[in-house]
Amino acid sequence: MNATDLALAKQFGESFFWGVATSAYQIEGGAADGGRGPSIWDTFTHTPGKILDSSTGDVACDHYHRYVEDVSHIADLQVSAYRFSISWSRVQPLGYGAWNEEGFDFYSRLLDELAKKNILAHITLYHWDLPQGLQEQGGWLNRDTAHHFAAYAKEVARRFGDRAASIATHNEPWCTANLGYGNGQFAPGVVDTVAALQVSHHLLLSHGLAMSAMRDQHVSAKLGIVLNQWTAEPATNSAADIAEAQWEYARSVQWFMDPIFKGSYPQIALDRMDMSRFQVEADDMAIIHQPLDFLGVNYYFRAYVSTENPPRKPEAKLGLTDMGWEIYPQGLRDLLIGIHKEYAAHGLPEIYITENGVAFADKVEDSRVHDQNRINFVRAHLNAVAEAKTAGVNIQGYFYWSLMDNFEWNSGYLRRFGLYYVDYLTQQRIPKDSALWYRDWIRVCG
């Protein structure tokens, strides 16, 4: 730790918590083990041409069999929190009907292991892996899926609601709707922008129904949702760029935040979207619009909006990630301050940075992974979080994405976000320099 790091660390305080995050399909493997049913990602990855390296999550990081080792690695980082998702089809193979006790037992054992290490569990119910059985009934285009999700949420809360620090309904519903149903980049691979609009509503409806179902269980866990968000900045001061940036922010951030905190969709988005097939029933907005205990914010990049042809590109002064994303830490500060100003009067709860991380082309050299670029990335973004806290935003925790390299969706195993390097042939986990830095950082923060 250098003097700059020490000064920055003092701005967070001892009550601020530090963690790492993963998701089920990206790390678990064990695709056919323990009674697990297939999810839409099993189907999608086994469809030729969908994944860049033609890989699947059948084995991934083999966390299903190596969870004890992985919890030990989490503990080595000195974090106090671990965010993970439950595979719905592992605990309910079809997404409806009978529960799979062997699947629930796996997560119970994982919770036991975390408790032994004094690591608080932060559960996400849905990280994009809908049971294939529900997809065959229409998936998220079918309104009934929202009710099946609420039943699933209720059962998880009944079993684990007093063993977890928090439960999030969804992770990044924007991705589920727009990448899964809008452009077909993610499972289930549908290309229909109007369908994506309806899916986004059913996702929000399912969130509201699930919140009520879990509240009825009187759980001690804090309840909320995780949204991927970004600022939208015009490339120039032209009226066209400014208007397009406002539209981009409305259709992404406000489209999900407004129903939750204001009880309505943003008018600017309604005015510009094709609403011909958009169906909202009378009580839907009241179901969606209810108090949260926390809001999870995932941040990776900003939207840089240009209406020119070809569009202007940002200078990317800090470079690009291995995903091709601009490194822009001040966007996190601006985003947090912006949503605080807009939604504080509408019940904005405490905020967790539930994902923030970076992919680089990491290599093992002499049994080490030297990733100073990742350390620089994290330091810059923590500085942005500190500035937002100083400005009055109620941020209570930070999760680095991700604990270890894993299956990165349609990129397969070509992109590495982890603090631990994973050799996929041997399943060896190697702590990168960033893991050691993060450990030392947390020690300094107390």
UniProtKB/TrEMBL annotation:
The molecule here is called: Beta-glucosidase
**What keywords are assigned to this protein?**
Carbohydrate metabolism, Cellulose degradation, Glycosidase, Hydrolase, Polysaccharide degradation
* Record GO biological process: cellulose catabolic process
Q: Which Pfam families match?
A: Glyco_hydro_1
Reactions performed catalytically: Hydrolysis of terminal, non-reducing beta-D-glucosyl residues with release of beta-D-glucose
Active site (record annotation) = 172 (proton donor), 355 (nucleophile)
Molecular-function annotations in GO: beta-glucosidase activity
Similarity-based family: Belongs to the glycosyl hydrolase 1 family.
The Enzyme Commission number assigned here is 3.2.1.21
Tagged with keyword Hydrolase: yes
Query: Binding of substrate: at which residues?
Result: 26, 127, 171, 300, 401, 408-409
Q: Which organism is it from?
A: Undibacterium nitidum
* Superkingdom of the source species: Bacteria
**Gene3D superfamilies from the UniProt entry:** Glycosidases
